[in-house]
Amino acid sequence: MEATKTRELSGEKAQRIVEAMRSSVARRGIAGSTFEHVAREAGVSRGLLHYYFGTKEALLVEVVRRDTEHRIARLDHPLGAAQSVDELLEVLVADLQDSIQNDPGFWVLLFDLFTAGRRNPEIQREVGELFNRTRDHVADILGAKQAEGVISPRADINAVVALLFAMADGIALQVLSDPERDHTGVIAAGTEAARHVLAG
Fold this sequence. Notes:
Layout: H1 12-32, H2 35-42, H3 46-53, H4 56-81, H5 85-102, H6 104-119, H7 121-148, H8 157-177, H9 184-199
Helix pairs in contact: 1-2, 1-4, 1-6, 2-3, 4-5, 4-6, 4-7, 5-9, 6-7, 7-8, 8-9
């Protein structure tokens, strides 16, 4: 999968294509989201999608990449400004809850891509590299907080970040799988577990 081709496409057309795929997956799922659907909704030729993205899987990874980078960039300033473990956790929990409530399509696509990666090693590799870049970025931010004395993690910062991501992914899966249930308790328990790991 030549995912690097996606980097050549920028501007308004690229955004329309990514948004069209994102919207299509939310309505039809990965299997039902064809280049034909996406091209029509984006107002571009099907050939343009093939030229820039090569495969549907490459486009799906690009959708998740852009969404993830946007979410992480949005966290940079508030995390950097946090002066205590509680302030840092407040930022992370608020972002998780906001994404689950207002952007469930992000999680649906993420979980669908994970499933697709079980059958396609190229997707698995691309998604794994994306996760690694994301975790490294957050680890850099929390490493700076550690240097400032704001947090005192009980384990290596990279392991702590991986644990925080795992908890967030698991909570998102539970909430989206059973939206009628009250998940306040599990979010509170997860927050307390994160505080224990970060507070030293």
